[in-house]
């Protein structure tokens, strides 16, 4: 997995895919930078759960390895940690609209998945009123093989287009193991700084995964060189191919009001 960037390009984990949405019924949506954010070293997105309300505090989705206090260790889960991290909110064209700020790290881990969710100090309604930006919606459906996706990097202001090639039963990178990871086709040649990008399904305009890593050097199971492990323990590598972590189960972990509740039915995120 690629390391986040520090100011300029420093590689450490790579992440996710996401872009924006302006959906038209029964047709592919327009995916752009609206709703995405740039972090100091990674990418991310302003997201809502299907049951989120306009008055709820906004949520930012990025990678676990993009956490400002450092990458969580294997097996570590962080919840309800104070934060004042700032994010640059982008327009549809990728220009900077202003800054939104976190009040808490609601959840962060690199166990089974690679995700951090921040709670903002501003509501969706306030952000919409001030910047004219609406959040991206988190899908509750498992992504489909062959589907068209876009990985939208707020850090680089670049959109990658490819398809879901398939799924890795287990994706192992150094000491971390991720479950049921999305494997990209070759079009999404992600680099350092794209970590945490939302992966947007072009048909629905919803976030189906978060971009996080790629096999850079053709090595096996090392840092920046994830390997796939199947149900029988067989190991394979795909040099130059990127991966993302599915997000469709995350909404199950949120009660009304964007309240994180890891005990809710259907919530499979690892617990502290």
Structural class: mainly beta
- Lateral strand order in the biggest sheet: 1-2-3-7-6-5
Q: What is the rounded distance between the termini? A: 23 Å
Radius of gyration: 17 Å
Q: What would you call the shape?
A: globular
What is the average of the pLDDT values?
Answer: 92
Q: Please trace the helix and strand order, writing H or E for each element.
A: EEEEEEEHEEEEEEEEEEE
CATH architecture: Beta Barrel
**Contiguous runs where pLDDT drops below 50 for at least 5 residues:** 6-26
Specify the oligomeric state.
single chain
**Might you state the CATH topology name?**
Thrombin, subunit H
Please report which band the strand proportion falls in: under 5%, 5-15%, 15-25%, 25-35%, 35-45% or over 45%: 35-45%
CATH class descriptor name: Mainly Beta
Number of domains: 1
The count of β-strands is 18
Percentage of residues in helical conformation: under 10%
Describe this structure in words.
- The chain is mainly β.
- It has a single domain (1-266), classed as Beta Barrel (Thrombin, subunit H).
- The protein has one helix at residues 124-131, and strands at 36-38, 43-48, 57-62, 77-82, 86-90, 96-109, 115-123, 136-137, 148-153, 158-173, 176-184, 198-201, 207-214, 227-229, 235-236, 242-246, 254-255, 259-260.
- A 6-stranded antiparallel barrel has the order 1-2-3-7-6-5. The chain has a 6-stranded antiparallel beta barrel with strand order 9-10-11-16-13-12.
- It is globular, with a radius of gyration of 17 Å.
- The protein starts with 35 loop residues before the first strand and ends in a 12-residue tail after the last strand.
